[in-house]
């Protein structure tokens, strides 16, 4: 999965909000559609960015962990 995704959210806390922006070249739209079908609520930005908000006020640790699993499963299903 790591070779197909890059976090583009700024590393410096003062330079970012509470969203996570993931660059997923070439297969991003397909991945976004799969995670959406699995119940993950995110945001698609052209050309290749998936935005997610793992905010503690709204999400549990389990929610965030499961999102990571679904993301990995989706990428694996597409690239195989």
What does this structure look like?
With 80 residues, this protein is an alpha+beta fold. The protein has one domain (2-8, 17-79): Aspartate Aminotransferase, domain 1, CATH 3.90.1150. Helix content is 36%, strand content 16%. The protein contains two helices and four strands, in the order ββαββα. It has helices at 28-37, 61-79, and strands at 6-7, 20-23, 43-45, 49-52. The chain has a four-stranded antiparallel sheet, with helices on one face. A hairpin with a 3-residue loop joins strand 3 and strand 4. The chain is globular, with a radius of gyration of 12 Å. The N and C termini lie close together (11 Å).
Key words describing this protein structure:
single chain; alpha+beta
CATH structural class: Alpha Beta
The H-and-E topology, N to C, reads as: EEHEEH
What's the end-to-end separation, in Å? 11 Å
- Level of helix content? 25-40%
In the predicted model, the low-confidence regions spanning at least 5 consecutive residues are none
Number of strands: 4
What can be said about the biggest beta sheet?
4 strands, antiparallel
Average residue pLDDT: 92
Tally of domains: 1
């Amino acid at each position: 999965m790591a070779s197909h995704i890059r976090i583009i959210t700024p590393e410096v806390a003062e330079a970012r909000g509470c969203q996570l922006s993931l660059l997923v070249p070439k297969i991003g739209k397909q991945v976004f559609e799969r995670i959406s079908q699995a119940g993950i609520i995110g945001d698609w930005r052209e050309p290749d960015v998936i935005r997610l908000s793992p905010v503690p006020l709204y999400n549990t640790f389990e929610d965030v962990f499961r999102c990571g699993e679904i993301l990995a499963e989706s990428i694996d299903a597409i690239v195989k």
